[in-house]
Automatic annotation (TrEMBL):
It is an enzyme of class 2 (transferase). Pfam families: N6_N4_Mtase. This is Methyltransferase. It comes from the Bacteria. Gene3D superfamilies: Vaccinia Virus protein VP39. The keyword DNA-binding applies. One of its GO terms (molecular function) is DNA binding. Its EC number is 2.1.1.-. Signal peptide: none annotated. GO terms for biological process: DNA restriction-modification system; methylation. Keywords: DNA-binding, Methyltransferase, Restriction system, S-adenosyl-L-methionine, Transferase. It comes from candidate division WWE3 bacterium CG23_combo_of_CG06-09_8_20_14_all_40_14.
Length: 289
């Protein structure tokens, strides 16, 4: 069956284009709070950042079907020497939005990803108590659920074609709360100046928490990684993104057209999957205030 992939150039604090209960899975990684890369200067302070998370969580709860899953890749952030407890705050925000806290998985990056930095090297320069500051090789994948899932609501046919490979689960240790995954390497052509998560993350989430032909949502689409994996796995996708400049990257990553914005829907010649673009004319693409 052909799948449809819809990109909305607009702010996900309002997902007005999506009806209530129209989405089966949400997988995303929100912008890091005031990181020098990603969306620099987007948030004027931490309170505003949490306000964005709160509105996005409420909208996610609205558009998700009952029983379905929201997967959030997020982590605490160090800004000018101050550590912000983003994981704890985001967990509380999603609970307040009506979600049940289901699980937390730790994403472990390769051991060679970070070398001794100025932060962790302080203890080597000053080998005394109170000089210890560790570098972070971990990120959190927080899993929430909207109520309880009705397993009988899925037909035998859909269950059969969505079956997860148990060998893959065992070989790659998906059954653990520690997932070792390679991060996107600097210089990757489709992730330049974008803090993209690895394709393996949405790949696992989509296979574990959605069925074929269902709708996968990424409210912070970025370079389109979640949408790409949704298409490859036979799911439909919806993405929201405020950076219009990322449109060619998203289209290219998804495999639609030549990656150029021709103002028209694109249709692959070898498959009937479609790409739909919605641009909010009234949307402002500057900092969120």
């Amino acid at each position: 069956m052909a799948t449809n992939h819809k990109l909305i150039l607009g702010n996900c604090m309002s997902m007005e284009e999506l009806p209530n209960g129209s989405v089966h899975l949400m997988v995303t990684s929100p912008p890091y709070f005031n990181a020098p890369f990603d969306y620099k200067g987007l948030f004027k302070d931490y309170g505003q950042y949490l306000g964005v998370l709160r509105k996005f969580a409420q909208e996610t709860h609205r558009v998700l079907q009952d029983g379905r899953i929201a997967v959030l890749n997020i982590d605490d952030m160090l800004i000018d020497g101050e550590k912000f407890p983003i994981v704890a705050d985001a967990t509380k925000i999603f609970q307040e939005a009506g979600f049940r806290y289901r699980d937390r998985i730790i994403w472990k990056k390769p051991d060679g990803y970070l070398r001794i930095s100025r932060r962790s090297g302080v203890i080597l320069q000053n080998p005394y108590p109170m000089y210890f500051y560790p570098d972070n090789l971990l990120e959190s994948i927080i899993i929430f659920q909207k109520g309880k899932f009705d397993y009988h609501s899925i037909s035998k046919e859909v269950r059969a074609k969505s079956k997860v490979d148990t060998k893959e689960i065992q070989t790659n240790k998906w059954y653990m709360t520690l997932w070792a995954m390679n991060n996107v390497m600097p210089g990757s052509p489709l992730e330049k100046d974008i803090a993209a998560f690895p394709e393996e993350l949405p790949y696992r989430a989509i296979k574990l928490f959605s069925y074929k032909d269902e709708v996968v949502l990424d409210p912070f689409a970025g370079s389109g990684t979640t949408m790409k994996k949704a298409r490859e796995l036979g799911r439909n996708s919806v993405g929201f993104e405020i950076k219009k400049s990322l449109l060619p990257v998203i289209k290219k990553k998804l495999g639609f057209g030549d990656g150029q914005d021709d103002g028209q829907d694109s249709l692959l010649s070898d498959k009937n999957d479609t790409f739909e673009l919605i641009t909010r004319k009234q949307e402002k693409y500057g900092p969120i205030r």
